[in-house]
Write a structure and sequence with these properties.
The structure is a homodimer of 232-residue chains. Chain A is an alpha+beta fold and 232 residues long. Chain A has helices spanning 5-9, 57-68, 130-147, 161-172, 178-187, and strands at residues 13-24, 27-34, 44-45, 48-50, 76-83, 94-102, 115-119, 191-198, 208-213. In chain A, strand 1 and strand 2 form a beta hairpin. Residues 1-8 of chain A have low confidence and may be disordered. Chain A binds a DNA duplex (27 and 27 nucleotides) through helix 5.
DNA sequence: GCAAAAGTGTTGTGTCTACACCCATGT
DNA sequence: ACATGGGTGTAGACACAACACTTTTGC
């Protein structure tokens, strides 16, 4: 079957789409794009595009993000899933491979006019199956915040604990104790003190120590291994 | 771009492949297939096939498994990832979406002559990028054994704790304490006593109580939420 | 009684939450 | 001095591993 030539002519189109998330104004936001062409002309959708010969899926989504919405400063990218419902695109048979991309809170890429950040909690109707993809991306991010160092991808290069707390709160959707956040992340050696301090605000207050993430690459830090190997 | 008709003619072929795992003879084994046709004729590979019009990826891999290796008793199936390296297939541009499938230890599907179970720890050279897919599947299974009820998909409908221990040991690759396995799974209400007992072996011994998994569907049982919402 | 296999009791350790308290700065 | 925001100390709850011990069977 791999060499069945009839299937070659019946191959589906393949597109890539990205859920680009960032915390902006204390909210988890996603980068959306207003479609100019059918299907779903005028509707909001995820940034997407077609896979070109000679490139991998990840190269493809990076290319589309760079050329169409000028987003190059992704601190992290990972594949989410491939959707294949035959009717997902009303015009043709098309699969899509979805990616999760993260942008640090301190970068603000210049966006084209048809592109906008939207809070994930208040999404407009989205084209295709993109609403489900956004929710899957948010779940993936939330889970990984608990057992990996993925916070590095949301945070600026240096930050105070309370700033980091704001990022976690926005991404997780619930409050986080600054006390325990600091201790959990320090215990796991995810955070390093930079030695610098943030100046206090206009109304005073103790200056906050600044931290940075120890590693700018995704690592599993809590091997959630209830069933871990015996110590002997 | 979605409506760019040039890309339609340049679409890649799309195949599906499955890592079907089961614990057999105290080892984690994978279902392999000896390829009859090029590319990689004569080499071992994962069971695979082409996506047909009108079907989803999951329907497709279920169809190929049912028709080609006669495996219908999958207790669980989930998508792993989609691989897209342009040179992964030497004959043509082809993506593959990989699935993880699990078969309970007490079912033994009749297999065609070109199909065989092989221990994951002693794999022959595999076609394409299939070796990497098998390792990804094993990692996914191992992780999910710790924080979900996925054990239900490896286990028969009723089992003693020591039988279950054997399954976990084979899948995880290290020893597991029967004492603690029982307590962890009971504490999380994954396991229910059936009220029946297994007769003792020829050399005596206390008869083992039989258990079953409470739910035959994947559930996250340990929300590994170090950063969980405050109780108030 | 003795060996074999299953299951329970118990102790110790580590990680987390919650909350009280202390520290450093501006006005 | 006092308000404001940052950081630490500590106690309690919980989950887990390890291991000793008890129970139930065959011989």
């Amino acid at each position: 079957m791999v060499s069945d030539h009839r299937t070659k002519t019946a191959a589906p189109a393949h597109s890539v789409a990205a859920v680009v998330l960032a915390v902006r104004e204390a909210q988890l936001q996603v980068l959306l794009w207003e479609r100019a062409l059918d299907p779903f002309a005028g509707a909001w959708s995820l940034p997407d595009g077609s896979l070109a010969p000679g490139e991998t899926l990840e190269q493809s989504i990076r290319r589309h993000l760079a050329t169409k919405v000028d987003v190059r400063e992704l601190s992290h990218i990972e594949q989410l899933e491939t959707l294949s419902e035959p009717a997902r695109n009303p015009l043709r048979w098309e699969l899509v491979t979805a990616y999760l991309g993260l942008v640090p809170a301190d970068v603000d890429p210049a966006l084209p006019a048809d592109t906008r950040w939207q809070p994930v909690d208040a999404l407009p109707a989205l084209a295709f199956d993109h609403a489900a993809i956004v929710l899957a991306a948010r779940e993936r991010l939330r889970a990984k915040l608990s057992y990996t160092n993925i916070g590095f991808a949301l945070a600026p290069s240096a930050f105070s604990i309370s700033e980091l707390r704001g990022l976690y709160r926005a991404a997780l959707g619930h409050d986080v104790s600054a006390t325990n956040l600091q201790r959990v992340l320090l215990r796991r050696h995810l955070l390093l003190p930079t030695g610098h301090r943030r100046g206090p605000g206009p109304s005073g207050g103790r200056p906050a120590a600044l931290f940075r993430f120890a590693t700018p690459r995704l690592e599993v830090t809590d091997p959630f291994a209830v069933l871990r190997p015996p110590s002997s």
